[in-house]
Write a structure and sequence with these properties.
Largest sheet: 7 strands, mixed
Number of domains: 1
Order of helices and strands: HHHHHEHEHEHEHEEEHEEHH
Distance between the termini: 51 Å
Number of helices: 12
Helix content: 40-55%
Structural class: alpha/beta
Number of strands: 9
Strand order of the largest sheet: 1-9-8-2-5-3-4
Strand content: 15-25%
Radius of gyration: 19 Å
Protein backbone atom coordinates (compact mmCIF):
# COMPACT_ATOMS: atom_id res chain seq x y z
CA UNK A 1 0.00 0.00 0.00
CA UNK A 2 2.82 2.41 0.86
CA UNK A 3 4.42 1.87 -2.54
CA UNK A 4 1.12 2.65 -4.30
CA UNK A 5 0.57 5.85 -2.30
CA UNK A 6 4.18 6.94 -2.80
CA UNK A 7 4.00 6.28 -6.56
CA UNK A 8 0.81 8.34 -6.94
CA UNK A 9 2.19 11.28 -4.99
CA UNK A 10 5.52 11.07 -6.80
CA UNK A 11 3.78 11.28 -10.18
CA UNK A 12 1.81 14.31 -8.95
CA UNK A 13 5.07 15.90 -7.82
CA UNK A 14 6.37 15.77 -11.40
CA UNK A 15 3.70 18.21 -12.58
CA UNK A 16 4.94 21.72 -13.43
CA UNK A 17 4.63 24.31 -10.68
CA UNK A 18 2.02 26.31 -12.59
CA UNK A 19 -0.17 23.19 -12.93
CA UNK A 20 0.17 22.43 -9.21
CA UNK A 21 -1.00 25.95 -8.38
CA UNK A 22 -4.01 25.61 -10.67
CA UNK A 23 -4.88 22.44 -8.74
CA UNK A 24 -4.23 24.31 -5.50
CA UNK A 25 -6.66 27.07 -6.48
CA UNK A 26 -9.36 24.47 -7.12
CA UNK A 27 -8.68 22.72 -3.80
CA UNK A 28 -8.77 26.09 -2.02
CA UNK A 29 -12.23 26.77 -3.42
CA UNK A 30 -13.51 23.33 -2.35
CA UNK A 31 -11.88 23.53 1.07
CA UNK A 32 -13.09 27.02 1.93
CA UNK A 33 -16.35 27.42 0.03
CA UNK A 34 -17.77 23.88 -0.23
CA UNK A 35 -16.42 21.80 2.65
CA UNK A 36 -15.89 24.96 4.71
CA UNK A 37 -12.97 23.37 6.54
CA UNK A 38 -12.71 25.09 9.95
CA UNK A 39 -14.06 28.33 8.50
CA UNK A 40 -15.77 29.19 11.79
CA UNK A 41 -12.51 28.65 13.71
CA UNK A 42 -10.56 30.81 11.27
CA UNK A 43 -13.12 33.62 11.38
CA UNK A 44 -13.29 33.48 15.18
CA UNK A 45 -9.51 33.59 15.53
CA UNK A 46 -9.21 36.54 13.15
CA UNK A 47 -11.97 38.43 14.96
CA UNK A 48 -10.08 38.03 18.25
CA UNK A 49 -6.68 38.88 16.79
CA UNK A 50 -7.81 41.80 14.63
CA UNK A 51 -10.94 43.37 16.18
CA UNK A 52 -10.15 46.74 14.59
CA UNK A 53 -10.05 45.39 11.06
CA UNK A 54 -13.21 45.46 8.97
CA UNK A 55 -15.07 42.28 8.01
CA UNK A 56 -13.79 42.72 4.46
CA UNK A 57 -10.19 43.02 5.64
CA UNK A 58 -10.50 39.85 7.73
CA UNK A 59 -12.15 38.09 4.80
CA UNK A 60 -9.16 38.98 2.62
CA UNK A 61 -6.79 37.55 5.25
CA UNK A 62 -8.86 34.35 5.40
CA UNK A 63 -8.87 33.98 1.61
CA UNK A 64 -5.10 34.44 1.42
CA UNK A 65 -4.63 32.03 4.33
CA UNK A 66 -6.56 29.22 2.63
CA UNK A 67 -4.54 29.73 -0.54
CA UNK A 68 -1.28 29.40 1.40
CA UNK A 69 -2.62 26.37 3.28
CA UNK A 70 -3.35 24.43 0.10
CA UNK A 71 -0.22 25.73 -1.63
CA UNK A 72 1.84 24.30 1.24
CA UNK A 73 0.18 20.91 0.83
CA UNK A 74 0.94 20.77 -2.90
CA UNK A 75 4.46 22.13 -2.39
CA UNK A 76 5.11 19.37 0.13
CA UNK A 77 4.17 16.80 -2.50
CA UNK A 78 6.46 18.58 -4.96
CA UNK A 79 9.34 17.98 -2.54
CA UNK A 80 9.26 14.28 -3.41
CA UNK A 81 10.96 15.00 -6.74
CA UNK A 82 12.29 18.57 -6.56
CA UNK A 83 15.94 18.98 -7.60
CA UNK A 84 18.62 20.58 -5.44
CA UNK A 85 18.98 23.35 -8.01
CA UNK A 86 15.27 24.20 -7.95
CA UNK A 87 15.18 24.21 -4.16
CA UNK A 88 18.16 26.56 -3.99
CA UNK A 89 16.42 28.88 -6.43
CA UNK A 90 13.25 29.00 -4.37
CA UNK A 91 14.61 29.28 -0.82
CA UNK A 92 16.79 31.83 0.95
CA UNK A 93 17.75 32.62 4.55
CA UNK A 94 20.25 34.37 6.79
CA UNK A 95 21.57 31.00 7.99
CA UNK A 96 24.79 32.70 9.10
CA UNK A 97 23.03 33.56 12.38
CA UNK A 98 22.99 29.84 13.23
CA UNK A 99 26.38 29.08 11.73
CA UNK A 100 28.03 31.84 13.77
CA UNK A 101 26.53 30.31 16.92
CA UNK A 102 27.87 26.90 15.89
CA UNK A 103 31.41 28.29 16.02
CA UNK A 104 30.94 29.02 19.73
CA UNK A 105 30.11 25.39 20.53
CA UNK A 106 26.79 26.31 22.12
CA UNK A 107 23.69 24.37 21.15
CA UNK A 108 20.71 26.32 19.89
CA UNK A 109 16.96 26.09 20.31
CA UNK A 110 15.07 27.42 17.29
CA UNK A 111 11.70 28.86 18.24
CA UNK A 112 9.15 28.84 15.45
CA UNK A 113 5.46 29.46 14.96
CA UNK A 114 3.09 27.71 12.59
CA UNK A 115 4.07 29.75 9.55
CA UNK A 116 4.11 28.74 5.87
CA UNK A 117 5.91 26.82 4.51
CA UNK A 118 7.70 24.98 7.31
CA UNK A 119 8.89 22.24 4.95
CA UNK A 120 11.07 24.76 3.11
CA UNK A 121 12.48 25.91 6.46
CA UNK A 122 13.18 22.33 7.57
CA UNK A 123 15.16 21.57 4.43
CA UNK A 124 16.93 24.91 4.45
CA UNK A 125 18.24 24.58 8.01
CA UNK A 126 19.37 20.99 7.50
CA UNK A 127 20.99 21.69 4.13
CA UNK A 128 22.76 24.99 4.87
CA UNK A 129 23.24 24.87 8.63
CA UNK A 130 26.32 23.42 10.32
CA UNK A 131 24.41 22.05 13.31
CA UNK A 132 22.91 18.56 13.34
CA UNK A 133 19.27 19.59 12.94
CA UNK A 134 16.59 18.03 15.15
CA UNK A 135 12.91 18.58 14.41
CA UNK A 136 10.01 17.57 16.63
CA UNK A 137 6.84 16.47 14.85
CA UNK A 138 3.40 15.11 15.65
CA UNK A 139 2.96 11.68 13.95
CA UNK A 140 0.09 11.36 11.49
CA UNK A 141 -2.62 8.85 12.28
CA UNK A 142 -2.18 7.20 8.86
CA UNK A 143 1.06 5.20 9.01
CA UNK A 144 1.57 5.24 5.23
CA UNK A 145 1.32 9.02 4.94
CA UNK A 146 3.45 9.41 8.06
CA UNK A 147 6.19 7.29 6.48
CA UNK A 148 5.96 9.27 3.23
CA UNK A 149 6.27 12.64 4.99
CA UNK A 150 9.22 11.43 7.09
CA UNK A 151 11.01 10.14 3.99
CA UNK A 152 10.68 13.59 2.43
CA UNK A 153 11.74 15.52 5.55
CA UNK A 154 15.01 13.66 6.16
CA UNK A 155 16.43 14.20 2.67
CA UNK A 156 19.12 16.61 3.91
CA UNK A 157 19.80 14.85 7.17
CA UNK A 158 17.14 16.25 9.49
CA UNK A 159 16.67 14.15 12.62
CA UNK A 160 12.95 13.84 13.19
CA UNK A 161 11.72 12.94 16.69
CA UNK A 162 8.02 12.25 17.32
CA UNK A 163 6.61 14.49 20.03
CA UNK A 164 5.12 11.41 21.69
CA UNK A 165 8.62 9.95 22.27
CA UNK A 166 10.61 13.15 22.68
CA UNK A 167 11.79 12.55 26.25
CA UNK A 168 13.15 9.08 25.52
CA UNK A 169 14.67 9.83 22.09
CA UNK A 170 16.11 13.32 22.49
CA UNK A 171 19.11 12.55 24.68
CA UNK A 172 20.70 10.00 22.36
CA UNK A 173 21.10 12.66 19.66
CA UNK A 174 22.57 15.35 21.90
CA UNK A 175 25.53 13.74 23.67
CA UNK A 176 28.90 15.38 23.20
CA UNK A 177 28.17 17.69 20.28
CA UNK A 178 26.23 20.93 19.73
CA UNK A 179 22.83 20.61 18.08
CA UNK A 180 19.97 22.74 16.78
CA UNK A 181 16.53 21.81 18.08
CA UNK A 182 13.48 23.30 16.35
CA UNK A 183 10.23 23.71 18.26
CA UNK A 184 6.85 25.06 17.20
CA UNK A 185 6.26 26.66 20.58
CA UNK A 186 2.75 27.97 19.85
CA UNK A 187 1.09 24.61 20.40
CA UNK A 188 -1.84 24.57 22.80
CA UNK A 189 -0.74 23.11 26.16
CA UNK A 190 -2.31 19.85 27.23
CA UNK A 191 -2.85 21.29 30.70
CA UNK A 192 -3.33 25.07 31.09
CA UNK A 193 -2.48 24.72 34.79
CA UNK A 194 1.11 23.84 33.86
CA UNK A 195 1.55 26.64 31.31
CA UNK A 196 2.59 30.28 31.32
CA UNK A 197 -0.27 32.69 30.65
CA UNK A 198 1.04 35.44 28.40
CA UNK A 199 -0.72 38.36 26.62
CA UNK A 200 -1.23 37.35 22.98
CA UNK A 201 -3.25 39.71 20.78
CA UNK A 202 -4.69 41.28 23.91
CA UNK A 203 -5.83 37.97 25.41
CA UNK A 204 -4.11 36.08 28.24
CA UNK A 205 -3.18 32.84 26.51
CA UNK A 206 -1.47 29.67 27.82
CA UNK A 207 1.89 28.69 26.32
CA UNK A 208 3.81 25.53 27.18
CA UNK A 209 6.72 25.87 29.60
CA UNK A 210 8.75 23.07 28.01
CA UNK A 211 10.83 25.13 25.53
CA UNK A 212 11.94 27.60 28.20
CA UNK A 213 12.71 24.85 30.70
CA UNK A 214 14.74 22.99 28.08
CA UNK A 215 16.72 26.10 27.16
CA UNK A 216 17.67 26.72 30.77
CA UNK A 217 18.42 23.08 31.52
CA UNK A 218 20.73 22.70 28.51
CA UNK A 219 21.94 26.33 28.33
CA UNK A 220 20.99 26.63 24.69
CA UNK A 221 20.97 29.87 22.73
CA UNK A 222 17.47 30.96 21.74
CA UNK A 223 16.79 31.90 18.13
CA UNK A 224 13.44 32.91 16.64
CA UNK A 225 12.84 31.91 13.02
CA UNK A 226 10.22 33.56 10.87
CA UNK A 227 9.67 31.93 7.48
CA UNK A 228 7.28 33.33 4.90
CA UNK A 229 6.41 33.39 1.24
CA UNK A 230 8.28 35.93 -0.89
CA UNK A 231 6.04 35.08 -3.82
CA UNK A 232 4.17 31.95 -4.78
CA UNK A 233 6.59 29.03 -4.52
CA UNK A 234 9.48 31.11 -3.10
CA UNK A 235 10.28 31.36 0.61
CA UNK A 236 12.66 33.11 2.99
CA UNK A 237 13.64 32.27 6.57
CA UNK A 238 14.80 35.05 8.87
CA UNK A 239 16.66 34.05 12.04
CA UNK A 240 16.81 36.42 15.01
CA UNK A 241 18.98 35.79 18.07
CA UNK A 242 16.97 36.13 21.29
CA UNK A 243 19.62 35.28 23.88
CA UNK A 244 22.76 33.21 24.44
CA UNK A 245 22.29 33.30 28.23
CA UNK A 246 18.89 31.75 29.03
CA UNK A 247 19.77 31.16 32.69
CA UNK A 248 20.20 34.88 33.30
CA UNK A 249 16.58 35.56 32.33
CA UNK A 250 13.76 35.45 34.89
CA UNK A 251 11.34 32.54 34.68
CA UNK A 252 8.68 33.18 32.06
CA UNK A 253 10.51 35.97 30.28
CA UNK A 254 11.88 33.82 27.45
CA UNK A 255 8.31 32.77 26.76
CA UNK A 256 7.12 36.39 26.89
CA UNK A 257 9.85 37.41 24.44
CA UNK A 258 8.90 34.58 22.11
CA UNK A 259 5.18 35.45 22.20
CA UNK A 260 5.83 39.16 21.58
CA UNK A 261 8.01 38.34 18.57
CA UNK A 262 5.47 35.81 17.28
CA UNK A 263 2.65 38.37 17.47
CA UNK A 264 4.78 41.01 15.77
CA UNK A 265 5.50 38.70 12.82
CA UNK A 266 1.87 37.62 12.50
CA UNK A 267 0.70 41.24 12.40
CA UNK A 268 3.08 42.00 9.54
CA UNK A 269 1.76 39.10 7.46
CA UNK A 270 -1.49 37.73 8.95
CA UNK A 271 -2.29 35.19 6.24
CA UNK A 272 1.07 33.46 6.81
CA UNK A 273 -0.10 31.95 10.13
CA UNK A 274 -2.03 28.71 10.67
CA UNK A 275 -5.42 30.08 11.78
CA UNK A 276 -7.18 26.70 11.77
CA UNK A 277 -5.69 26.05 15.23
CA UNK A 278 -7.99 27.05 18.09
CA UNK A 279 -5.39 29.32 19.63
CA UNK A 280 -7.76 30.70 22.28
CA UNK A 281 -9.24 27.39 23.35
CA UNK A 282 -8.81 28.08 27.06
CA UNK A 283 -10.36 30.95 29.02
CA UNK A 284 -8.30 32.71 31.67
CA UNK A 285 -9.56 32.26 35.22
CA UNK A 286 -7.88 34.61 37.70
CA UNK A 287 -8.46 32.26 40.63
CA UNK A 288 -7.03 29.22 38.86
CA UNK A 289 -4.39 30.77 36.60
CA UNK A 290 -3.50 34.04 38.27
CA UNK A 291 -0.16 32.85 39.63
CA UNK A 292 0.87 31.60 36.18
CA UNK A 293 0.64 35.01 34.46
CA UNK A 294 3.88 36.54 33.13
CA UNK A 295 4.12 39.85 31.28
Amino acid sequence: MYFIIYSIFYLVSLLPWRVLYIISDFITFILQRVIRYRVDVVNSNLAIAFPNKSIEERKKIANDFYEQLTDSFLETIKFLSISDKTFEKRYSSNIEVLNDLYKTGQSVQIMAGHFFNWEFANWGIAKHGKYPFIGVYMPLSNTYFNKLILKMRVRYGSIMIPATNFRTHFQKYTKGAPYALALAADQNPGNPMSAYWVPFFGQLTPFVKGPEKGAKLNNTAQVFVHFQRVKRGYYHSEFELMTTSPNYVNDGQLTVQYVKTLEEKIKKNPSNYLWTHRRWRYTFDAQKHGKLVVQ
